[in-house]
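note to self: dont lose this again. the chain is below, predicted strucutre after it. 159 aa total, dont forget to put it in the shared folder this time
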Amino acid sequence: MKKFTLNLKIVFSFTACIAFCVFSGFDLPEENTVIIQNILTKYYDNDSQIKDIKRFEINVTNTGFCRYRKVFNNGKQEYFAFNLARLKSMDYYGTTTKGELYLRTKNDDVIVQTRNDRAGDIDSMGTYMVIPLKNIEVSELNALAENFKKMNATLLVHK
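---
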């Protein structure tokens, strides 16, 4: 009976180790989207924007869309969105104190919309989206780039 119990413990331990190794090796897309959104929101530079910005929204969805919206005090809205599967490169221009993050796409893949503007509502397409950042360390930029790569690869596999 002791031998049976010992064998049962060994089999159970081995099965638990295999299950742990298998499930810990997968990165869920939800993790990448949460990390990307948290970094962009945490280090967003609201001070560099025009002083009449009422609020901003940065949203990264599980389906791979990156959305950036600015609402001004006068009611004007600017909206930028693109699918992360179309992301070509990420460039950061500036210092750790202040800079701009350029998210570049392969073609004209960035949706650009302006609402409630004096010039009228404008819908167009662009090749990049610019997000102002401040007080961001190089390690955070590297983590952001790595999560963009992981999300891009995941989206291309599921496409």
